[in-house]
Amino acid sequence: MTEKSTRPPGPLSDATDVERPVSFRGGGFVVQPRRLVGPVVFIVLIALWELGSRSGLISALVLPAPTEAFSAFMDLVESGNLQKHLGASLQRLVIGFSAGTVLGLIVGTAIGLSNYARAGVAPLVAAIFPIPKIALLPLFIIWFGIGEESKVATILFGCFFPTVIATYGGIDNVDRTLIRMGQSFGLSHWNIIRKIVLPAALPAILSGMRISAAIAIILLVAAEMIGAEFGIGAYVLLAGNLMSTDQLIAGVTVLSIMGLTVNWLITKAEKTFLSWRN
Q1: Using the 8-state DSSP alphabet, how is residue 60 labeled?
Q2: Is residue 7 part of a domain?
């Protein structure tokens, strides 16, 4: 889209002046998709990694070639162990992340909308949030045992606090002019929350979910390394103890794919629920 600009008539203008196009400047910071850039970067990095391994610049003991890691991954698939480890990890991740997110949304919304909840709960959240959640895993094991409950509780606890902070922070940043406008039109308190406050806070909430999802995967691996028979974290720990770096890289790759999948799902949610921003 262009707009035409001409020099205003005057004594300095001459007959050679012509209309010249001016580029459109009203697009704002619109995100333009560049779908090929990401895959190209991955391909280049993997190619350099493979080249360095085959030329001897990278020791196979320190970092095996991508082809060796892929062979280890295929062995994991063909043996059926991938389904066992991945199934156990996904079950823990989904339950812990979902429960922590739902509780975080409820508590964060209460803090953002209620002065009593803000006065009573917000200081408690601020006090507990800086504690490394993996440090609480031994306490959870004492409370819930060495089974699934302690691992799920660790993930839940880690997802809960970022979601709470992102939720009430997003509510605090809602434009108060919009709320006053809704009040002037006679909207009820519930309709103002449902139609104005929560939609306006949704970008911050989804950003908090993206952060809590990454934290959930980190805590999942740490919890499985401490006490689990099956799980990607347990598989990575066993590979490290055996100095089997190709299997270790294969396990880390599975974790990376899990993270990319969660990021893709949240991106899809943002495009669906935040289409009004475009």
Answers
A1: T
A2: no
